[in-house]
Amino acid sequence: MLISLFEMKRIITTIACVLFGAFGVLAHDFELDGFYYTIHSSSELTVGVSCRGDGFQDYPDEYTGTVVIPETVKFKGKTYSVVAIDKCAFGGCEHLEYVIISNSVRHIDEAAFVFCRRLKSVTCGNGVQVIGNDAFCGCEALTTVSLGVSVRSIGTGVFAGCVGLEHLLVSGGNTVYDARGGCEAIIETATNKLVAGCRNTTIPADVSVIAEAAFYGCSGLTEVHIPASVTEIGFEAFAKCESIRTITVDSKNPVYDSRKACNAIIETASGRLMLGCMNTVIPEGVLSIQSSAFYGCSNLTKINIPASVTDIGGNAFGRCGSLQTITVSAGNPVYDSRDNCNAIIETASDRLIYGGCQTVIPNTVTGIGDRAFFGCKKLKTIDIPNSVTEIGEGAFDDCVGLTKVVIGDGVTTIGDVAFGRCEHLTSLTIGQRVVSIGQYAFSACFALKEVVIPNQVGFVGLCAFGGCESLKTITIGSRVTFIGGGAFDGCTALTDVRCLADDIVVEDDIFDDVDMSSASLYVSASALKSYRKSSPWKQFGKIEVLTH
Asked: For the chain, percent helix, then strand, then coil, each to nearest 5?
């Protein structure tokens, strides 16, 4: 869940239709003095500040500079109290810098300030009681947050990705939360749960729980010490904390340990490694590696999987963009790194589950696992051998340094988002046996100029090549029978489409944001009349017969 929620600006700009659907809001009811409002209660005369239009994606920078939220507004002769900042109200306002929230506001809804990258300061009035999930997610310039006396509820991941956050303060009169001992963290007083931390946090010795995503994306955090009192650590509590160098656990902790100075957190009873960092050495005796244990550890360069490890969770090494050397100890019954391939392969299935920037895929591998190379930014080229039959979902997603991909003739299925956001991909060869290209499979490959969809392909998924803004030439194979909505959306450089298929089921929006009147379509002589009459093909400026 958290991975899709916190993928920051790039997901918003490149695979927008997925994320905006999750964050969508109702249209505003009225505008006054530069603010947009939604009526919450006509009888109680209450409103919330909202975004303009149907969602913040429509006007992504509507609010700028300094914003002061008023206590009341007048509309059609009635005075309304401003009681809330609605879902995504200020979402994506990259030039918003300062916000002063009036005492009338009681509720800051989820993702209210999501991705306000230049937001430096938020002053909350004493009336704020609830701060929703991800309210300030991705506010990279935010340095100081102070909670007032009335705050009663704080959601998950409220400050996730606030990489500049240095100070977390709580008013002394607050009865629900505290920042005891100047710890630079927000702690739920009754439960001793640390709900949010920052780069300067020192976890107090009486904290019992570290909440889910409490330090998510805290890139300035360099050291983590878990006191003896901590008995529960939430999912992805320290994910994407890429600068952590040292991890220790108090020797008296009954639940966790950092045995053999391994620079990791291990659940003692289960032998499960829960958190690693750039300097982790996985000890022999560890039985499993938790999902997202090393997620976002961009400075990790080498890892060895001991013989004792028999289970590695999903996305355990996601976004480890500098990972070069990957080995598996001899004698491991589940995994191997055959042929010095710099990858982790599931031995029984011959499926590559994790790779790095120096991986060479052996010709005995039959599948590339979901998110196997996710966020491997230093990977430059990849040659997928003919032995591989399937490329999993998100297998090479966000490999921004990838320039050349050769997909072997054994591959039949390319999974959803398999090569999404490979921004520098210029050379793509799709194998001749591929029959299905998944949703968003090559979306936001900004540098890609030419695509040849082989003749065996029958299915091209939703937004498969959406946002490929440099794409000039497309060849559609003879057996393509279905092309999903937005398949070539935003391919603004498109000039030539060569379609070898005579009968394709398509949605009208497959060429959205493309100037079709300036592009040419080439089809077979037998299909020429049909294409000239049917949508969206008839919108091409020139439709002619294929000559070869």
From this structure: 10, 30, 65
